[in-house]
Amino acid sequence: YQRRVHGQQEISKLRESLQTLTKTTNPLGKAMDYIQEDLDSMQRELDMWKAEAKQQAASWAEQQRLTEETLQPLQSQLNDLEDNINDQILKIHSTKSAILRQDQTVETLLKMVVTARGHAGR
User: Fold this and answer.
1) pTM of the model
2) Distance in Å from the first CA to the final CA of the chain
3) pLDDT tens string 75-97
């Protein structure tokens, strides 16, 4: 008889343990379901952001191309202007050099005139 009572007590303890285990694992199972849903949602969001990044990179590349295309004539014009400026600077230097040579010639001629008058006046 005692074996039987002891067996029933064991079965009762086992039943309580099983119920406790079920109560504690049930929320865990539900959490696992939500984790998979969250993972799927995060993967979809990641895919969306990757697509957005790819689209933005393509848009940036197109804008870069358009900017360079727009700037090309202006860059050519700037290069032409810089060439013209350099040509004008060379002309200015050449003219200044010619003026200096002419000043020296005038000075030499004036000295000759003054010297000639000085010799003629004696």
Assistant:
1) 0.49
2) 169
3) 999 999 999 999 999 999 999 99
